[in-house]
Structures
1.
Amino acid sequence: MNIGEIARRAGVARSTVSYALSGRRPVSPATKRRIQAVIDEIGYRPHAAARALKEGRTRAIGLVIPPASLLLTDMQLGFVASVVEAAAHADLDVLLSPSGGDHDRSFERLISGRRVDGVILMEIRLEDERVTRLQQAGLPFVTIGHTARPQGTCWVDVDYATLVARCVHHLADLGHRTVALINRSTELVAAGYGPAHRAQAGFAEAVRRRGLSGMNVPCADNPAAGEECFEQLRERHGEITGIVTVNEAALPGIQRGIERAGVAVPRELSIAGVAARHWAEGFRPQLTAADVPTLEMGTHAVDLLLERIATPDGAPRHLLLTPPISLRDSTGPAPAR
Amino acid sequence: MNIGEIARRAGVARSTVSYALSGRRPVSPATKRRIQAVIDEIGYRPHAAARALKEGRTRAIGLVIPPASLLLTDMQLGFVASVVEAAAHADLDVLLSPSGGDHDRSFERLISGRRVDGVILMEIRLEDERVTRLQQAGLPFVTIGHTARPQGTCWVDVDYATLVARCVHHLADLGHRTVALINRSTELVAAGYGPAHRAQAGFAEAVRRRGLSGMNVPCADNPAAGEECFEQLRERHGEITGIVTVNEAALPGIQRGIERAGVAVPRELSIAGVAARHWAEGFRPQLTAADVPTLEMGTHAVDLLLERIATPDGAPRHLLLTPPISLRDSTGPAPAR
DNA sequence: GTGGGCCGCCGAACCGATTCGACTTGTCGG
DNA sequence: CCGACAAGTCGAATCGGTTCGGCGGCCCAC
């Protein structure tokens, strides 16, 4: 069931079959029909490897995800899903590669084995050796999130600094004077994870501008940590009336803490944040939040990558998204003293 | 940077380079060293497509996942992660293919484009056309979960019927007389989703054997549905003292319902279930449950697949796992009347 | 009637690896 | 001293596509 077999059965040359399928040269309607009939009959499809070898491109992209041992957050999962979706739409296959840990063989295979035409990188660090590696290999790539020197690369990101700042402004507008940021974990910040850094920076700046008193609280990415974090906050800093959170995975824990403490939201305490819509709407009461558009981001990443594959020497394009804050039920006027 | 270039620089024939790398024929130590030196210098790796073309295998496997629009449950995510992990360990690449919905092009590309050496299928239905398609294509495959006629295929599955039955027996042993099963959604059952069917069957059988009164309650895969489901159960069937659940995604909602209703677990109500350990331990109080060994299952699936690829005509092997029930804090003696 | 141009198709080269048969050495035994 | 044998290497064929140059036949214009 190769192209030669099709050609034989249709009584033409292999090249004619190829041209009939690709349309790169005219083929008479009669011949085209005969070829198509044979193909329909035996269900032929070009051999991907043979085509890749000759064409010099694989019609596949790589998606580099955090190592599997760490559980993916819902947001990361959303990216993966949307990238896969968008790629399928563009008739591209997606090769999954865990990176970090001891999985660098997989990453290396992807790159130097020329298995893919381009790569999408998730969970970028401010200094990221994978970016360096891809640059030196000359393989087109797009990152979700950006490094410390974002100019030279293509990326899609959410403007955490601005979004967190907007949350702070929103709370300040409602009269809150003392607010806290529940950030990602200390380890992530130490590892140079951009969103955590930028959230912190945006928070600090907005707090300063509005003359509020604010504190930055690190929190691991899981419900238990969220609950503990919330309890400590209540215990030690009872004066806080507004919370901003960028830690999606901690939300269920925060909610649990709130309910156990019997705090009324938003009457006694307001909460705003940055989260995937799915999580914001799952929160009780529904969370006022900037909804991270994971689906759009995956689509954009694939689009940018395709563009870059087509013109590798074009100017690198970026996309910094600033989704609007959806006002839901978790924020309200600051309680009277 | 192809094998010819290496050969040229090392002053040998291309075939010699190939033999030096594969070791399929003896090459003198001196030549081998010279070749290795050149390779180390310019960082050569064989071109995956060329190798695949000649060898007739791609060193990649396909992983067919539910369509991305549906959010993956934590358990499904665990499978994906463990398959990717295990594959990386065996130096295999993983091609992701969403299936169902309008994504069948992607599935078809995988198969007839011979992009992969084998396929792992998730979320199998009792009657599944993808299985039929793979069989007729003669492509080795392993399913996670099994169809109505499991004899002819390779699969790895969790014995839902037995596990649910064990939960029922556990509750019965503790003196509970009226129990409910919180199952997956009505749609899934209607679509012929095996685990939901088998959970129901196992529950019914165990309830009958122990002479309990029991009811089967369908529930969608999300927290909100879980909460509603729990509330209805309390409202209409207050006599229930034991709950068995196989609906992982509903757990947070169930927990919320319990807390809002102020029910004491396990004093007033016992809960047991089947869930990934991660979820069972995240439940408050920690959930007595059969921990679905997602990590093991992915590893086994890859192992079975590799075996099948090596000997496509061997007898199909299955693996039906029955993990033990971990006794945690959510079950206790039935309350006295 | 003949030359030019175009349409439709064919044959061969090529992509980068693997693998088989054959060839050149060198060594050892008879 | 010559033949057998083994070790080490080379050249060519092959996998299944795509693509380039060329060739035959037909139509049309001069």
2.
Amino acid sequence: MSTRQKILDAALEEFARYGLSGARVERIASRANANKRMIYYYFRSKEDLFLAVLEASYADIRSAERSLDLEHRDPREAVKRLVEFTWQYYLEHPEFMTLLNSENLHKGRHVRNSSRLREMHSPLVGTLRAILRRGEKQGLFRRGVDPVQLYISIAGEGYFYLSNRYTLSRIFDRDLMAPRALSGRARHISHMILNALRT
Amino acid sequence: MSTRQKILDAALEEFARYGLSGARVERIASRANANKRMIYYYFRSKEDLFLAVLEASYADIRSAERSLDLEHRDPREAVKRLVEFTWQYYLEHPEFMTLLNSENLHKGRHVRNSSRLREMHSPLVGTLRAILRRGEKQGLFRRGVDPVQLYISIAGEGYFYLSNRYTLSRIFDRDLMAPRALSGRARHISHMILNALRT
Amino acid sequence: MSTRQKILDAALEEFARYGLSGARVERIASRANANKRMIYYYFRSKEDLFLAVLEASYADIRSAERSLDLEHRDPREAVKRLVEFTWQYYLEHPEFMTLLNSENLHKGRHVRNSSRLREMHSPLVGTLRAILRRGEKQGLFRRGVDPVQLYISIAGEGYFYLSNRYTLSRIFDRDLMAPRALSGRARHISHMILNALRT
Amino acid sequence: MSTRQKILDAALEEFARYGLSGARVERIASRANANKRMIYYYFRSKEDLFLAVLEASYADIRSAERSLDLEHRDPREAVKRLVEFTWQYYLEHPEFMTLLNSENLHKGRHVRNSSRLREMHSPLVGTLRAILRRGEKQGLFRRGVDPVQLYISIAGEGYFYLSNRYTLSRIFDRDLMAPRALSGRARHISHMILNALRT
DNA sequence: GATGAATGAGGGTTCATTCAT
DNA sequence: GATGAATGAACCCTCATTCAT
């Protein structure tokens, strides 16, 4: 693997674990079996490296999403697949959530100038809108549901649970990461979203 | 106001804005019109101060919640009030969300040993459970909804939207904080949750 | 016990353990079950407190020494008693050695202006000189031994061994504080000093 | 001279003068014409630097000692040379004594894990043991003298006098560092040790 | 592409001491 | 005699970044 790519991987781990401020350039370098100077050679600064990591992460989830092939499915089935995929993705990629939290802590400073990101997302909205329309026409879904709002609901149901798992486990005095708890949450989310869409 | 309290207030602001690693003890002191040394006098370390801030924040939201007087209301009305309150609280207290994100970034390290927090939350679960039962008996709500799962859904719907407002605004190319967007989200959440609970 | 005395005792322990720079006023106060402010009330500063501790320690060893009643004994017996006493005193009062080391590290800065100390020691020299003279006259001791030099030899034989016990144990790979090692050293010193004085 | 070496030299001076707690990293850096950061670059911490200084100092005295070439000399002559060398070394290297005092104040914490030190010293003990044996065989020295005990006596005679010169000068009201006092002490020590070894 | 050495600013924390009561 | 609150300076250490090769 190229030094550049190794740095990117190491940075993802580091940023995910410690946040932007907490991340250490030194640790990224040594984790990548590279030299600190190389980080500045390939990326210009810690912050630019952070943006690169963020873009790569977004690209990854969107790319996985595309392979769900939602366009040609029964509307209820399509929504269900998206719900389950989203939950599973966050579950398997907790680093993606901490990355987003970091970026939002910084008020989206790095993302602001990235046009790549915007472009990456319009297909998602389009797809979702099409599904909702088909569902409405077939009398399966209630009218007036906004695709962006729906997507945020789908993501939020999993995100909040998983991103805040430590504090939630503490305040509710349950292990939210126990296998049964996880499968319970997955079922709960599917019910919630699909029920909520019913006419 | 006491120096101790001034430090606590200043720390809330600072931690909310910059996270735990990004927060500067120096800034907290000067914002509190106090001396850096006093922070270590009243709290033992930056981390202990963080925990104190976190506990105070949790106490605040739970206290506000209690004044909703949910116990004696119609089940649907009670849920609606809780949904609206939760949304409104996050909207008005974005610092609470960044605090939680910080704590979870650190895997709940500070919260782990706080028994205050656990105790603070059992009434909430009790109240919600009672509401759900009454709703089920009156044939308003479907059976088998877990109060903790429901609470996480209610909170998650608002939290994800507001906490990630910068990245979401960017990727969906809309200003999520515009007044109309906000009221739209409030309505969306109410519909989602109440519909989802239908039999 | 008076607060003043409790502070003095606590300070002795603290200075002995950590040296002058390493000692903490805070710890002295809490060890004395007193208030930090009281230290400044009774003694004027950390350094003045250090001098007070030093003077008290010197007073203690000289007072114990006086009770040896060396004046009226056989010269060899008198020297032997002094040798054994000195060894035993250092053994039982390691704090006295660290105190002296601290003071000498600071080039005797605190002791310089204390006339109490000088006065305290002239009787010791007088006594030793008398013993040496009697020994010489009786043909037991060689001539020309200076009492101050002799005292420094007697003290040095024990001091170096005990004060440097940690480094010496390490470099010679033996536990110098094991009971047998200690009694061996006591015997060695007696032999050395008495043999050295022979005509 | 390399930055590393300059730091080491500066640190020796600083630690010798102020002890471990009293030493200031800042002063070491500026005395070495280096940057504070470099101290942590080459050595990991103030304490590790202290150990490095200590090891270098021990290496220095042992190396000088080896050039005395004691193995092939008349036993009395060999002891005399060692006595005089040891006195002279302490006289010229007061910093070595303060270093040892510091380390022992800290209960040998730094030295404990250094195997270099132990290895450095076994030749010394071997040499001394051989000299004593030859002296015994030739009827010059009394039997049963332990080489380690003897070495500690030789060192202790000079060490106590020089290390505690400030307090001793004060309590005995003499300038122990005056040239005549110094040469007097040198003679006294030689007499003491050689007399003490006689059969 | 890669590296070891260097840097200045500032990080959290602790110090001896004093103020006000 | 005694106390809790306050202070400013300075502590050790670490940061992201750059220089020279």
3.
Amino acid sequence: MAHFGPRHWWPAETPFEVIIGAILTQNTAWSNVEKAIDRLKKAQALTPDGLRRLPSAEFLEAIRPSGYYNIKAARVKAFLDMLSTRYGNDLERFLSLPTHTLREELLAVPGIGPETADSILLYAAGRPVFVIDAYTVRIMARHGYLAEGTTYGEAQGFFMRHLPRDVPLFNEYHALLVAVGKQYCRPAPRCRGCPLESL
DNA sequence: GACCAGGCACATC
DNA sequence: GATGTGCATGGT
């Protein structure tokens, strides 16, 4: 598997950028999210204050390429509102909460579900939380390690039981699963030559 | 033109 | 508790 190498899989310069990307990438190809992130960067709107200053019409236009833009705008706003009302707009303080508390607070934001919350925990807050996504479940199910239809929590529990709690490992492991999934583990009808079959 | 992409909330049974 | 649906753009 050396072929895949380190992924540097979540390309973001700041924790805030991770958070915005995590929301924008919901059920969306990252290439679409990149366009949105670039536009926000140009508008200097990739900080809590910068984003608040951006008129909502311009924000909508900026994130349009990432799809579901009306819903995602509401989700980003919901996060900013929570950060403002509950943490005085202090992102650093928010991200310093104990892992369990931080996860609960994220999940309480409408539009932030388990995968988005865990992505923020791992990639923005640096907590050893294993992120589950569609590829992960598909790969594990197809190779018989998990049942089809396994819940998020069950899949996460599987990895957390079998791997040491190590942030760089979780980062790389998830990235590799996505890399393999993208290339080989397509939805059932288009599943093709998986290199793991021989293992 | 169909299919898919680094989900989530909500309605309905 | 399980299943179905809306949300939307852009690449293959």
4.
Amino acid sequence: MRIGELATLAGVSTRTVRHYHHLNLLPEPERLANGYREYRLRDAVVLTRVRRLAELGMSLDEIRDVLADDQGRELREVLLELDADLARQQETIGARRNRLAALLAETDLHPDSTVSPDMAKVLRDLSVEGSKFAEMDRELLALMDTVADPADRAGFIDLFRPLTEPEAAARGHALYARLDELTDADPGDPRVATLAADLAAHFPDEMVTALVANLDAAPDHLRPPTTENADGGHWLTTMYPELSAAQTEVFRLVMVMLKERG
Amino acid sequence: MRIGELATLAGVSTRTVRHYHHLNLLPEPERLANGYREYRLRDAVVLTRVRRLAELGMSLDEIRDVLADDQGRELREVLLELDADLARQQETIGARRNRLAALLAETDLHPDSTVSPDMAKVLRDLSVEGSKFAEMDRELLALMDTVADPADRAGFIDLFRPLTEPEAAARGHALYARLDELTDADPGDPRVATLAADLAAHFPDEMVTALVANLDAAPDHLRPPTTENADGGHWLTTMYPELSAAQTEVFRLVMVMLKERG
DNA sequence: ACTTGACCTTGTCGTAGCGTCAACGTGTCC
DNA sequence: GGACACGTTGACGCTACGACAAGGTCAAGT
């Protein structure tokens, strides 16, 4: 038998056979005078045994070990381990399909993007035409949706809910507009302080206490600008370098006010 | 944000981030004076979006295409396709686990090797101490178990059943012994013809007709030695070069006799 | 001033299981 | 003698990074 016959007999390519030789999975047979490999039935038996195990999902290394260990108890152990491995794979694939189904249900309603269903609603409600700040918040929320743990995620959604409720939406849009207006303003502009006060007034008391507690626990680079971040807003300026000084000042003031209330 | 912060924020390694840059999955951000990459929140949003899709099992190429196609209908198609792909994977893994379970049940009874359950029984019954020919037949059957389609496989098992039935086993062992005896014999030895006749007598009529029909349809290199294979037993000598001339002559005669009967 | 340590940079090799060339020799058939 | 189907070795490609190497940068401690 030459390599092509062996390969078609076992249902593999000749490349596969040579690959197995290279890995010492299949012993190199004798060569004919012209250099061709000459196989016997024994080789076909070994090859099909290898294939059988490979098709079960075993790695070629494992197969080599098992066959080298000359049939027996070792095989059972490896097969059991393999079964456990396959079970894990099934679970992860199942989990993926579940997440996929959730995503598909969402994109079915609105072909937005890849976020969780409840967050998607907030993002839709928060889409304000032409406001750079609304877009910023949407970015922030989209990010928090995936990086924060579920408890914090719910907190963030609540944080923005006042801006998305139908009766409050108009007021929310007005706030975004006032922020956008400060693009070219001076940090000492009188509108800065009043806007900060209006923004701070938006947060219910119990949310403020939870928020302040969370902030103290947050890692430094995720902490919004407060008086402690001495350079005047580390977080906001690194995350959004394009903000004007007046705009960052608004947020600094808001944080100070919230700190005092919490 | 520097690369380490971005990476921990998204829950990946810095290597992964740079890899995504290399693949144009994530745009290269501006560099600081020292050459460090300086990221913004926008980048974190993109990165988490990529990760979200990657964790669903999409390839990075697909993700790039989807994100490039700027959100929308394309995403749905790809997700549906992905779901179908995952479903296929689940099926194949399920099939693997089924085969594994069958194998485990078999090795539970007898730690033989990797064959189907019914074949395993034949192989056990066929194990004759010290007979080279019994081993050959075991090899042959093990091979046929995996390469032949189920119908032929059953045929092969039936072919050997006369040798494995308890009441006939002794006669089978005797036949193997008589074959083994011919190792150093001359092809013209009188024992050759009588052994061939005894062997041929073992096959029931209906099996002979089926066998002969099958042989005509078989590809050339799988066809056992007959008078048509003019060089005196192509199949047997290539598969088992260590056979003596007397032994191959036995099989040639058997095939001739069967041909006449069929 | 020096060292440590934690970052950052680019570049290269390795992974599993082959597919897919390339560049070449062999053997058979018309 | 040319086509064609086979065989040979060798090397690169693929996925999604991990794990080095061999440096440069920066803040803190001694």
